[in-house]
Each structure stands twice: as structure tokens, then as C-alpha cells.
């Protein structure tokens, strides 16, 4: 694959990223909680040769308020566990990467680590993990283990320490997961009948993690997975998260609004990466997309949804509404600013997903900027990340 | 006219990480590849089994301070694999063991409700508890509870989970009127217990079964009481007809106190099997499996757990150690401890002397032989006898080989149970509650 080739991912959530997108669903909302709905979406994404899909998640109900449910019934509310959803879809697909969100704030790092490693086993090396912090006091109350201050936009300064702690804890959680993923050497299973040994226990390693928030002994209960290290991908908006991504992630999702900002953010991410060893971060830009071949149609569709929702779509990422050719032009422009891939958030599902797979992808292919067929089997392979040796493997080989 | 015969329920246990699972056999394949899970699940579904069962252990077992290396090691996260299996099976129930000690109720309830949606009503939860700080070293919450407290915590855990599962009204998503959901149909949970304090709204709509099937495996008085109050299935370990009947009677009798009827709790003991074309062939197959399960090193390791000392210098094909057990410290971690080691050692010595047994022969003798040994016809008859005689409602079969260990049973025994009219030829319903003949919620 030439270097110029872009990476394309799609972010799946509910009926799409417009809060009113569910209104165009053919049936009742129950469909969003059925496997067949997601299976059709992932099959479409795989038909479009996309790198991977992500699945959003969170413990609390979706809300328009900064912290806690808003009691609204006119938008999608409710979600399935993203790791299980990804695993449910894994046997139905063969090439596309599956990257679920799981929180680092509440879920035990040991459970996340074996869950994602198991997803990697089930999918034959296509698993990723999008770690996410959960700063909300209302999420903490669902677990009942800790009390968090209420998240108020007017009091962010007071919350600085809280947020710093959450990111420090997130970095520890990813570190624990990565150590657990390496805690079995690839050749730990020996099945040596003569000595009666199933494993060579010198090739299993305690990780002995001790941190401010938790200690984890290890080793993992799950043997090393096909990718060795599943792909870690984080969405970041600020300097603190850039440092987190630089330390913990393989892929970073950023949210520039034009080419100049894209260049500036790429610069800041690369700065945060100073001192990082191994592969550099793969930088993806997030965009909300409404795509229609007919000029003006996408904007009209978005305007109609805005009206149904009673508000203009608000987003951290740039909202694009236009033709596949226009979108391709934008993606290629930002590529020149150092963006290596895109995570597109379809405004409405499945319509705008098809706009990507059947509209955008052919345009990019014609421009020689996107693959014509799947090459690598694993997600790491597709992102040009080599399969790393286990960090403890040499120690064990003494 | 005879009354309809009591129906047998069958489940398939994925081979575990103890010496019941034979890995030295050339037919033994990966314990971790999805293809192995898929093969066993598809075989169980072909046999019209009620459910497929995954065990769990959140820390690798240790012996003498080192990771135990003689048995199969390495398992996936249960719910993640079951979610994958939901995509390649259509009717088979999917049961995960999930520890109530090292998890939070909100998260477990949410994941189980998710599996129930993704499988369209086939999820089950085997509720287990642990009290060992050894496993706790992998988690934020350590485990330092005595047995009574463990059950109180588990009972509270399940009670809270049920509140969460019940918190969305069944028709919350049939909103109409320009609404996706009726927000007033999402109940606010506010739970204050001794172990958990939780408040807020659940994110998963009511699942197809209402809640997953609850399985419970404890055999103590507290365990039986917990099951009588809470469980839909008991995974028991009573191997003989007499023991089984006593357990069955005892547990079913406890149900009335909770306003429940006998059919609402199914009793399914674990069972192993060995088949042959003749009784003699089956007996020989059973003996060969036992020899595979108790290799020379395993025999020594097994004895060390009772003797509490290193006896690796002893010949497994020779007599028992002449030294007495060292009672100062346990050697095994992550396994159920053996209660009175001096008495066990004395009993074993007497047995070995009487029958002239070597160490390995003794271990083969004292550790469980197969539950069912015989021709397919005699095994089918025996299973039927247990069920009709109220010693069980069915069995959770534990094959000794991954992944083909259930093939023979499904091909040869299941048709005979079907001929007897005691096991379904086709699934009648779609949910696991349907298969288990439990009332819908």
C-alpha cells in the first residue's frame, strides 16, 4: 500500500450522530438493541473496505445535560455494552477492525484487558479498545464505589484536580492492560507430554503493577492474543489527553475544524509524543458526515433533522454536509496537513454510512488514496503497526 | 394412559482448567481458539441441549507458590466469547460464570442484559463468590469475606441486578408521539444495602427474557438457601442416585418458603461420561481416560496438596510416602482447600494398603470416576433413571476433550433419549427459559 493511502474508520452509535436520526428508522426503536441492526451496518462498512468501526459506550443514559439524565424521550436513550456488541459481530465479519469503547474509570482494568484480548481471539486479530474516562458524578453513583463532584461547565477550574486524576488513572488502566496482554509469552503453551507440563511457567509473568489507584498482580488468565497488543485508540481534545494518548495509544482521534487547525493539532500531538518509543501515533480526524450525491441534498437532510430536534446539531467535530466528491476533497486537503486517517461519524444510519462506503470510497479509490481490497488480516497490520514481541519475553528466555 | 414422562435437561460444560480435561490426547485442540468454542457450541445445539456453560477463574492456580503447569491453562473472558457464540448459534442457551466478588452489580447486570438482547433471550448467569485474597490481588476490591457474608453479598448483588433489569417497562420503546422512548417508563433505581449503594437509571431496555436465567453452584446450607430464593438452575455435584435424591428433595422442599414451585428450580448435577460399543469397551475407555487424567506428575501434585510437602522424589508408580502430612501451611492457591488433611492421608494409606495401590493408582481410585460409563443405550437409560427417580432434572455434561468431547454423546446417546420420549427432538421455544420450562416473567 502506498504511503498516501488514507485510513478510514466509521463511528457507530445509535441511529447515527444526529439526535433526530432515529426518526427515519423503518421500525420501532427496539431495532437498535438487536444484533441484526448492527450486523447490517458492519457488513456495509466491511463492503466499503473500511479499516475499522468504533462503538460508543457509557454507563449513564445519553443526555444533553453536562452531568446526569435529562429526562428527554425525543432522542435515543439506552445502549448495549460495546465490547459484547463488537464480539457478537466478530464471527459475522472477516476483515474489518472492531473497536469498542470501555471506561477506564469504573471497569476493572483486569476485566477490560481479558475482554479485549478475548475479542481479539474471537475476531482473529481485529480487536481494538477505545479507553474513555467517565468524569460524571451520576455515572459514579451507578457504581457506588466513589463519589465524584458534579460536572458543571461553570466550575471546570475547580474540577481540574479531578480530571487530572481520571487521566492518570486511565493511563494506569491502559498500562495494566498492555502488561497483561504481554504476560503470556507467545510460546508459553508447550504441551510437553514427557514432563506432563501444559505450559512453561517461566513464560508466564506477574505484572506486579502498583499505582495510586489500584494494584494488579497478574498474569492474565487469557493467553496472548493474535495481535499481541490489540490497538488502543483515544479521542482527545486537549493538552492533557494528548499526553495520555502519546503515552498509551496507537491511534488518536482529533477534532480540527479546518486545514490550518488540523496542522496545528498534528503539531501538538507530535510534540506530546516526544520521548515516545516505537511506532508513532496514527492521527485520525473525526468528522460528522451527511453525504448525498446530489448537491444540496445532504444539507437539506441535515436541516430537516435539525428542525425535528428543535436545535442545530452541536458537535465537538466538524459537521460536514455535501457530496462524496466534496468530502473526498476535504479529506485529501487535511491529509496534506498531516492527518493520516479519518473516523467518520455518520449523521444518520444506515444512509450516511452508505454515503461513505458507496460514495466517498470510490472517489478516494479513483484518486489512488484508498485501498482497492483488504490486504492485512489483522487490524494492526492494516494500520502498519508490526506485531510487537511481548515485553517480558526476553526476560523469560534467560 | 400413562402421564407424560419427565423431560431431561442437558447442558454442555466447556472443558475446564483442571485434570478432568485431557490435553495429552492427540485429538485435543486449542483451549482458546474461537473455533473450539464454536465446535462445542454447535455440537450442543445439534444435540438440542438447553445451554452451553463457561466456567471462570480470575487468577491462575498455583501450587507451592508457582503457577500450576500440569493442567490446561488459559481461558477467555466468558461473556465476550458467549456474545461471539450468539452469532453462530440460534437456540442454544449461553451461560457465563461471573464472580459477584470482583465485579460491580451495575456493570454485570448491564453486560448480562446485553447478552440477553444480542442472543434474543438465551443468556444465563452462574453466580459465584470467592473469599480469597489471592484472586483479589488482581482487583480493586479484594476478597476478605467469610462464607456467610459472601452469600449475603451475593444475594444483595442479585437483588440489585434484578431491580436494574426490571427498571425499564417492557413497552418503554413503543413510545409513538414523536418520541423514541417514554422517559417515564425508565425507572430510577435507588438501592441502599450493606454492600452496595447505587442510584440512577439503567441503560439497557428490558431484555427478551426479562432477566437472564440464574444458575447457582454452592452446596452449603447457605448456598442451598440462596438457590431456593434466587436461582433457576442449581449446578450440583451429587453423583450417586441416593445422594442426588436427598439433595433434590432437600432443595425442592426449601422453595415453598419463597413462594416458589418445584418446577421453578431445575437441579442439574455435573456429569462425566465414557462410552463404548459394549459395557467392557466402555469400562476400558473409562479406565484409559482416568489414566490420562491422572498422569504421573499430576498424581504427585495431587498428593502434595494433602501431604503439604514436596514429595516429588517419590515414584508415582511406587507406594505412598512414609512421612506424615505437614499441616503448617497450605500449598495450593486458587483451589478449594482440603479440610482435614491428616484424616484424608490416613484413609488413603489404609486404602492403598488394602488394595495394593501405587500413588498414581490411588489418586485414580480416590478422585472421581466418570458419572456414566456404558453403551449409549445403558447411559441413556441411566440418565433417564436419575431424572424419573427425582435425583436430578438433567445434567451438565463435562467432556474430557476439547473440542470433540461431546460429539459421541450427541451422535449416539441423544437419539436414544429422544426415542425414549424424554428429550426434545426440536427446540419448542426460542429462549433459554422456554428450554428449561420455566415460567416466563
UniProtKB/TrEMBL annotation, chain A:
InterPro entries: Diverse_substr_monoxygenases, Luciferase-like_dom, Luciferase-like_sf, NTA_MOA. One of its GO terms (molecular function) is oxidoreductase activity, acting on paired donors, with incorporation or reduction of molecular oxygen. The keyword S-adenosyl-L-methionine does not apply. Pfam families: Bac_luciferase. Residues 28-309 form the Luciferase-like domain. Keywords: Flavoprotein, FMN, Monooxygenase, Oxidoreductase. The keyword Flavoprotein applies. SUPFAM superfamilies: Bacterial luciferase-like. It comes from the Bacteria. FMN binds at residues 57, 101, 162. Belongs to the NtaA/SnaA/DszA monooxygenase family. This is FMNH2-utilizing oxygenase. The lineage of its organism: Bacteria, Bacillati, Actinomycetota, Actinomycetes, Streptosporangiales.
Automatic annotation (TrEMBL), chain B:
InterPro entries: Diverse_substr_monoxygenases, Luciferase-like_dom, Luciferase-like_sf, NTA_MOA. Pfam families: Bac_luciferase. SUPFAM superfamilies: Bacterial luciferase-like. Residues 28-388 form the Luciferase-like domain. FMN binds at residues 97, 151, 220. CDD domains: Nitrilotriacetate_monoxgenase. It comes from the Bacteria. GO terms for molecular function: monooxygenase activity; oxidoreductase activity, acting on paired donors, with incorporation or reduction of molecular oxygen. Keywords: Flavoprotein, FMN, Monooxygenase, Oxidoreductase. Belongs to the NtaA/SnaA/DszA monooxygenase family. This is Nitrilotriacetate monooxygenase component A. It comes from Planotetraspora thailandica.
Amino acid at each position: 500500500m502506498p504511503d498516501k493511502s488514507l485510513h478510514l474508520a466509521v463511528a457507530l452509535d445509535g441511529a447515527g450522530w444526529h439526535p433526530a436520526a432515529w426518526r427515519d428508522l423503518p421500525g420501532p426503536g427496539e431495532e437498535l438493541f438487536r444484533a441484526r441492526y448492527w450486523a447490517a451496518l458492519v457488513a456495509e462498512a466491511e463492503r466499503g473496505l473500511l479499516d475499522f468501526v468504533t462503538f460508543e459506550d457509557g454507563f449513564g443514559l445519553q443526555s444533553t445535560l453536562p452531568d446526569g439524565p435529562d429526562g428527554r424521550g425525543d432522542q435515543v436513550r439506552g445502549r448495549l455494552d460495546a465490547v459484547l456488541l463488537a464480539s457478537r459481530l466478530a464471527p459475522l465479519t472477516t476483515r474489518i477492525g472492531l473497536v469498542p469503547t470501555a471506561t477506564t474509570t469504573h471497569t476493572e482494568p483486569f476485566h477490560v484487558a481479558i475482554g479485549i484480548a478475548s475479542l481479539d481471539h474471537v475476531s482473529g486479530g481485529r480487536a481494538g479498545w477505545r479507553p474513555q474516562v467517565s468524569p460524571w458524578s451520576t455515572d459514579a453513583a451507578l457504581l457506588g464505589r466513589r463519589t465524584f463532584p458534579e460536572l458543571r461547565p461553570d466550575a471546570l477550574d475547580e474540577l481540574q484536580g479531578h480530571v487530572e486524576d481520571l487521566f492518570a488513572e486511565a493511563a494506569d488502566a491502559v498500562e495494566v492492560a498492555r502488561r497483561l496482554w504481554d504476560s503470556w509469552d507467545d510460546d508459553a503453551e508447550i504441551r510437553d507430554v514427557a514432563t506432563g507440563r501444559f505450559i512453561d511457567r517461566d513464560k508466564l509473568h506477574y505484572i506486579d503493577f502498583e499505582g495510586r489507584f489500584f494494584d494488579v498482580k497478574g498474569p492474565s488468565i487469557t493467553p496472548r492474543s493474535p495481535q499481541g497488543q490489540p490497538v488502543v485508540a483515544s479521542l482527545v481534545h486537549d493538552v492533557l489527553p494528548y499526553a495520555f494518548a502519546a503515552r498509551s495509544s496507537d491511534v488518536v482521534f482529533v477534532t480540527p475544524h479546518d486545514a490550518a487547525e488540523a496542522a496545528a493539532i498534528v503539531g501538538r500531538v507530535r510534540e506530546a509524543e516526544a520521548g515516545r518509543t516505537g511506532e508513532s501515533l496514527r492521527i485520525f480526524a473525526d468528522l460528522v458526515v451527511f453525504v448525498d450525491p446530489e448537491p444540496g441534498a445532504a444539507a437539506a437532510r441535515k436541516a430537516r433533522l435539525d428542525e425535528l430536534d428543535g436545535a442545530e446539531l452541536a458537535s465537538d467535530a466538524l459537521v460536514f454536509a455535501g457530496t462524496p466528491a466534496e468530502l473526498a476533497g476535504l479529506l485529501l486537503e487535511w491529509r496534506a496537513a498531516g492527518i493520516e486517517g479519518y473516523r467518520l461519524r455518520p449523521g444518520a444510519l444506515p444512509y450516511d454510512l452508505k454515503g461513505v462506503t458507496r460514495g466517498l470510497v470510490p472517489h478516494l479509490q479513483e484518486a489512488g488514496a484508498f485501498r482497492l481490497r483488504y490486504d492485512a488480516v489483522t487490524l494492526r497490520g492494516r494500520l502498519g503497526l508490526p506485531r510487537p514481541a511481548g515485553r517480558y519475553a526476553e526476560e523469560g528466555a534467560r | 394412559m400413562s402421564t407424560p414422562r419427565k423431560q431431561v435437561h442437558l447442558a454442555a460444560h466447556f472443558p475446564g482448567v483442571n485434570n478432568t480435561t485431557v490435553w495429552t490426547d492427540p485429538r485435543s485442540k486449542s483451549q482458546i481458539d474461537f473455533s473450539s468454542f464454536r465446535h462445542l457450541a454447535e455440537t450442543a445445539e445439534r444435540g438440542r441441549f438447553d445451554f452451553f456453560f463457561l466456567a471462570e477463574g480470575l487468577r491462575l492456580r498455583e501450587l507451592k507458590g508457582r503457577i500450576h503447569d500440569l493442567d490446561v491453562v488459559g481461558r477467555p473472558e466468558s461473556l465476550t466469547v458467549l456474545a461471539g457464540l450468539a452469532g453462530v448459534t440460534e437456540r442454544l442457551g449461553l451461560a457465563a460464570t461471573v464472580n459477584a466478588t470482583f465485579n460491580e452489580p451495575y456493570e454485570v447486570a448491564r453486560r448480562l442484559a446485553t447478552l440477553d438482547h444480542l442472543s434474543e433471550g438465551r443468556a444465563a448467569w452462574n453466580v459465584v463468590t470467592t473469599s480469597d485474597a489471592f484472586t483479589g490481588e488482581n482487583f480493586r476490591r479484594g476478597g476478605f469475606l467469610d462464607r456467610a457474608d459472601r452469600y449475603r453479598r451475593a444475594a444483595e448483588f442479585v437483588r440489585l441486578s434484578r431491580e436494574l433489569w426490571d427498571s425499564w417497562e417492557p413497552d418503554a420503546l413503543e413510545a409513538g408521539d414523536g418520541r423514541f422512548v417514554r422517559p417515564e417508563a425508565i425507572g430510577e433505581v435507588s438501592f441502599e444495602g450493606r454492600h452496595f449503594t447505587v442510584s440512577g437509571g439503567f441503560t439497557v431496555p428490558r431484555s427478551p427474557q426479562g432477566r437472564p436465567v440464574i444458575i447457582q453452584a454452592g452446596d452449603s446450607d447457605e448456598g442451598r438457601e440462596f438457590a431456593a430464593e434466587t436461582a433457576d438452575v442449581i449446578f450440583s455435584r451429587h453423583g450417586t442416585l441416593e445422594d442426588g435424591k436427598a439433595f433434590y428433595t432437600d432443595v425442592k422442599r426449601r422453595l415453598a418458603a419463597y413462594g416458589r414451585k418445584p418446577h421453578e428450580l431445575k437441579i442439574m448435577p455435573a456429569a462425566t461420561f465414557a462410552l463404548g460399543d459394549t459395557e467392557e469397551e466402555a469400562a476400558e475407555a473409562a479406565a484409559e481416560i482416568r489414566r490420562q487424567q491422572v498422569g504421573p506428575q499430576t498424581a504427585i501434585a495431587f498428593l502434595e496438596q494433602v501431604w503439604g510437602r514436596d514429595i516429588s522424589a517419590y515414584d508415582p508408580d511406587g507406594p505412598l510416602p512414609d512421612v506424615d502430612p505437614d499441616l503448617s501451611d497450605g500449598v495450593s492457591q486458587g483451589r478449594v482447600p482440603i479440610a482435614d488433611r491428616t484424616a484424608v492421608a490416613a484413609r488413603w494409606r489404609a486404602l492403598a494398603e488394602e488394595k495394593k495401590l501405587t500413588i498414581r493408582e490411588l489418586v485414580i481410585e480416590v478422585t472421581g470416576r466418570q458419572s456414566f460409563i456404558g453403551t449409549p443405550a445403558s447411559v441413556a437409560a441411566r440418565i433417564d433413571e436419575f431424572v424419573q427417580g427425582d435425583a436430578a432434572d438433567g445434567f451438565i455434561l463435562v467432556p474430557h476433550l476439547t473440542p470433540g468431547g461431546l460429539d459421541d454423546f450427541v451422535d449416539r446417546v441423544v437419539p436414544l433419549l429422544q426415542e425414549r420420549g424424554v428429550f426434545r427432538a426440536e427446540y419448542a421455544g426460542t429462549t433459554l427459559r422456554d428450554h428449561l420450562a420455566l415460567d416466563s416473567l
